[in-house]
């Protein structure tokens, strides 16, 4: 099994503060993820001025302002901030990723040299956007929250027809609710996506806790994305449904353990258990004293540990033969 690509989704949890953004990068490095991801957008291109916040955003923010535009305007990262964060990621040997939400942002990230483009769930039905990213012929990670199989198929067709190779696309099963109720996770849909479209698949998680992404890895996910924050109690739209630093660390450790545990799929004794074969298995032994020339029978034979004698699977061929020597009780035949 190849290494699972783990994305720590900082998103907008930097609250518009570059110092906070760098602290998030530090946390991602300590946790051992492969990439830390932000969001690139111009509020003016993303939402109309009268668009309302989602219910979970209203609930998670204390400012009493229901405008999506005003919320997002404060969370924009300009080009200089992007450059600074990319340089900071490079110096910390972690991949910088960002999700573009509009055409200007796609161009900005392309100009900055990003090799992987993450398409968020909300853009899966945005044909001009998909075509723009598809033309770049980069690696693509496509989230599929709120989508059905037909919409996923259409999005993949647009990306491939625009010029992206299918083998460069990873499709993430996702649920766009923060937090996602367990009964709505539907992890098996991840397998359905992988098999139906013959693509690499993974999971973008919005549940509370870490068990679902770990289960996704055990089911074959090659990419995991999870929101994280410095502190769940901070003011902002996504903090409450994000992992805190210790939880992110625990998730990465568990995923790396599951990767090791998945193994080769070949069933044979492992290196660590080989010494225990003789101790745990058994051999055919004398149940009581046996004289030379006596017939070996079910009455005078037994099966006991250790396993350095005749394998008990040969019981039927040993029973009925003649003892070639004297045996004491418990002596190996």
UniProtKB/TrEMBL annotation:
Which residue range or ranges hold the AFP-like domain?
283-333
Q: Which PROSITE patterns match?
A: AFP_LIKE (PS50844)
- Which InterPro entries does its entry note? AFP_Neu5c_C_sf, Aldolase_TIM, NeuB/NeuA, PseI-like, PseI/NeuA/B-like_N, SAF, SAF_AFP_Neu5Ac, SAF_PseI/NeuA/NeuB
**What EC number(s) has UniProt assigned to this enzyme?**
2.5.1.56
EC class (word):
transferase
MF term (GO), any: N-acetylneuraminate synthase activity
Instruction: Identify the keywords attached in UniProt to this record, alphabetized.
Output: Transferase
A family per Pfam: NeuB
The GO biological-process annotations, alphabetized, read as:
carbohydrate biosynthetic process
Stretch forming the signal peptide: none
List the protein's name.
N-acetylneuraminate synthase
Source organism of the structure: Sulfurimonas denitrificans (strain ATCC 33889 / DSM 1251)
Highest classification ranks of the organism = Bacteria, Pseudomonadati, Campylobacterota, Epsilonproteobacteria, Campylobacterales
């Amino acid at each position: 099994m190849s290494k699972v690509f783990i994305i720590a989704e900082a998103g907008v949890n930097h609250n518009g503060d570059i110092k906070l953004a760098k602290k998030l990068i530090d946390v991602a490095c300590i946790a051992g993820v492969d990439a830390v991801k932000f969001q690139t957008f111009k509020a003016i291109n993303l939402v109309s001025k009268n668009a309302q916040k989602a219910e979970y955003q209203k609930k998670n923010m204390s400012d009493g302002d229901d405008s999506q535009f005003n919320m997002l305007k404060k969370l924009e990262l300009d080009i200089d901030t992007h450059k600074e964060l990319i340089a900071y990621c490079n110096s910390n040997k972690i991949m910088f990723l960002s999700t573009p939400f509009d055409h200007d942002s796609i161009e900005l990230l392309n100009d900055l040299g990003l090799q992987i483009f993450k398409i968020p769930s909300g853009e899966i039905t945005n044909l001009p956007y998909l075509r723009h990213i598809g033309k770049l012929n980069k690696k693509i990670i496509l989230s599929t929250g709120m989508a059905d199989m037909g919409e996923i198929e259409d999005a993949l067709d647009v990306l491939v027809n625009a010029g992206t190779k299918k083998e460069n696309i990873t499709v993430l099963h996702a649920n766009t609710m923060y937090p996602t109720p367990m009964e709505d996770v539907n992890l098996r849909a991840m397998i359905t996506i992988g098999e139906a479209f013959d693509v690499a698949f993974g999971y973008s998680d919005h549940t509370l806790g870490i068990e679902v992404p770990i289960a996704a890895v055990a089911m074959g996910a090659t990419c995991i994305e999870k929101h994280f924050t410095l502190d769940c109690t901070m003011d902002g739209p996504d903090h409450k449904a994000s992992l805190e630093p210790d939880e992110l660390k625990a998730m990465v450790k568990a995923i790396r353990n599951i990767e090791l545990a998945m193994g080769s799929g070949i069933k044979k004794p492992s290196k660590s258990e080989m010494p225990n074969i003789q101790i745990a298995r058994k051999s055919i032994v004398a149940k009581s004293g046996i004289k030379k020339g006596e017939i070996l029978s079910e009455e005078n034979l037994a099966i006991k540990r250790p396993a350095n004698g005749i394998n008990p699977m040969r019981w039927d061929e040993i029973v009925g033969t003649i003892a070639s020597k004297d045996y004491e009780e418990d002596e190996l035949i």
